[in-house]
Prior knowledge:
Mean pLDDT: 85
Pfam family, one: RsgA_GTPase
Structural class: alpha/beta
InterPro entries: G_CP_dom, P-loop_NTPase, Ribosome_biogen_GTPase_RsgA, RsgA_GTPase_dom
Cofactor: Zn(2+)
Largest sheet: 6 strands, mixed
Strand content: 15-25%
Radius of gyration: 23 Å
Family: Belongs to the TRAFAC class YlqF/YawG GTPase family. RsgA subfamily.
Subunit structure: Monomer. Associates with 30S ribosomal subunit, binds 16S rRNA.
Number of helices: 8
CATH architecture of the largest domain: 3-Layer(aba) Sandwich
CATH topology of the largest domain: Rossmann fold
Helix content: 25-40%
Amino acid sequence: MPIKDPPQRLARIGWRAQALPEDVDPAAIARVVAQHRTGYQLHDGEDTFNAQPAARFLKRDVDPTARPAVGDFVVVAAGSPPTIERVLPRRTELKRGAAGESHQRQLIAANVDAVFVLSGLDHDFNPARIERYLLLIQGSGATPVLVLTKADRAEAVDTIADDLRRRVPGVEVHAINAKSAASVEPLLAHLGPGHTAVLVGSSGAGKSTLTNTLLGESRQATGAVREHDSRGRHTTTHRALILLPSGGCLIDTPGMRELKLTGEEQIDRGQFADIDELAQSCRFGDCAHASEPGCAVQAALADGRLDPDRWRNYLKLRDELAATADTLEAQLRRRSEAKVLTKALGKRLGEKYGRR
Length: 356
């Protein structure tokens, strides 16, 4: 069926490009709203339908981040079932290091404008983990928004929020009751027509509860949390993009127990830029910031300008980032060497036996 107004249809699923690709039929564009073991679920702005990826996406040597992911706009070929033939260029990519020892990157969501980092104002609250989230978000192209949930059950909420604002200056912070439509209203500034946000945070932080409130209905399953550590079950079992009454799109994700850096982050920028600037002021260029004379970092720690907990977390993330980057570089080098050897072997076999 021909689409009378493709831009309006695509705007419903978060299309933000200035123009449609010249070589693509607008009627063939859809957005990935969910991924399952058996395939993908897409939305074309009018209907939801299932699709399978083209065979080339399933090859073992394909970079996992090159495969379709939730939030992607894709070109679909008609068929039974329809086939995802192409992933359109992404305007943003939120990634993390894949769990385990694979040293690969995992795409959490694509084409998002804001990342809502949820942290419960209970045992879940951890400023160091929030800083880790911000480091991951830094290179994504999306805007981080810190959402402190369970404000209706916590004490000294304003003090906690203000302390966090001082620790991560320039980052938007909201303390909310995720069950209250009035309380979550400030988040709607990031969820207007054509905009997409993704929810990240631990299990039990209130992602599904917030989603239901923004929807105005109980669509996402919610669960209780354990008393001793405020952790919950994975009530959300897969990433899913949801169209909201506000006109925007929201991607709900399962709780993340492991937040590995990708190795591409730049710790001297974003929320740690001030520490890097302090380090540049040390008397000696190779200062280790321990007991050297004229160390600006130690001076800031001594007079209270630099929070000791924040400094320790900076060192932890810096060392982890350096190790991850070294591992990634070694992996890329091995892949490059393997390709060269394979090409050389193919050339020798061709010269010996001839091409077929």
